[in-house]
Amino acid sequence: MGKFYNLDGSVFFCYILSVMSLKPKNIKKSKRAEVLESFILPVILRHRADVLSLIGRNKEAVKDLRKGIDTARKTGNAKAEAYCLIGLSNVYAALSNYKGMENTSKSALRIYRKFRNKKGEADSLDNIGEVQSSLGKFPEALEYYRQAIKIQKEIGDRVGEALSLSNIGAVLGMLGNYREALSSYERSLKIREEIDDRCGKATTLNNIGFLQNKLGNCLEALKYYRLSFAMRLEVGDKMGTAISLNNIGFVQKRLGKHKEALEFFRSSLQIREKTGDRRGQAVTLNNIGTVQQKFGNYTEALKYYRRSLKIREEINDRRGLAITISNIGTIYEIQGNHLKSLKHCKRSLRIEEEIGYKNGVALSLNSIGKLHHKLGNLTKAFKSFSQSLEIAEEIGDKNCIVMSLIGIAKLQLEKGEFGHANAYLNKALKMSRGLDEKDTSFNIHLSLAENSLVTAKYDRVEKHLNRAFTLARELDSKIKKGNALLVLAQFENHKGKLKRAQVSFDESIKIFEELNAPFDFAKACFYKGQALIQRRKKGGRLVKQAKEIFKKLGSKGWLAKIEEGNGEATRIKDKR
User: Whole-prediction pTM value?
Assistant: First the structure.
């Protein structure tokens, strides 16, 4: 999709069209001139539409192309009709009108095959492939792209070949075949550099950046995104500029620079709204939701997620649907509605399995594992984490591997298998050093602090807690600060620093209460109550409060933990 022709040539055609349209009415055209104009007009309109779409004026481009198709049909100019149909298909892609894109591409394909126009046939196959990819039908997309590239190689269409290679790379990336995807992108980039296709080169640079981001190489991804952004600005590609702004924002978010990320996302959304790029709007709205979530603005995050979800349902963007549904599930998890969250994660998983989106499957399984752990279903949690780990290792998604290792380690910690927990966490820590992912690093260091605490390795607790607090500050995350304070409070309590422990407990409780995070709030109440009881002070009310919340949330594991804690508290009381 998106074959934009030489801009100077397109401007020249637009000039001819403007001259034709401004001709005085009293000048009578010859019959030959009328026929010539009717044959040339669709081609001129197609070229002007390409320019209009390039600068984001897609609705005007659609009008030109429809006029071109009507003119071609009236004069029986089937070749010009197919040429305008492919142009319209390209614009429909920009507007996320996949049904329209598929219909126009298939109509063009029939005409091109009738006239044995190989280039037109390959272009049509490429566009049908993009429809399949956008709808999450990746095997079908690959089949169309491979048919296209076979023809392009036969006829020496290097521009088309580079496009197909880039499209194949995108699908392979979605399927988790990252090495093959990178190879396909590099072949595409080589051709585009050789033929000086600047628009195409910007697209491929962006796609390599996307792949580096998937592999956890955030700084490398940022380098490619910025190269692509500069090139798109230079050629005046507004839709491409919006993509680059969104992607730079995404990396900034992963690096913990949430305020900067929000600015990039807002700039991208502004352009996408002006150009009518609905698919792009949904992507950026979803991303703004993730930043609001990081800030603890959960109501605001849900608002953006729901706006994104509405668009994705309307345009049938199945992969996007899965992502946004999962994100809504995360908000419900934070708010303590674990069963509702689980329902959303399972719905997301079903879509990802249907479309063959392995990276999404691995992430959803990880989320499901965390929820089962919170609900006390440890066997189900272990199964989900193990499945997530297996898929993540298969596709080489380092960040997801690390997340799965953390999940399994926390289960081992729960079961008292501290040695195994430590082994998993150290493996995760080692692997995370190659990633630029602060969010994941925080989870590793906090888990290592917890494991060191229960094994009384206090020097390590301090070391990992200091790192966790630094990352929480860099991420500007209140909920992470609250969780770090909760572990610090337990650490201070173990060391007998009771007053400092109470201050840390109270601060963490206050944060969780402000964020409306009942699960974490209940945990903090339980641990504070337990600490007070162990010091022969009144903590029963806090434990009871925690128990009521966990009961409401359906957290069986934590209810069992409270029963164990109550038993311990009774034994202490009996001895006195």
Answer: 0.73
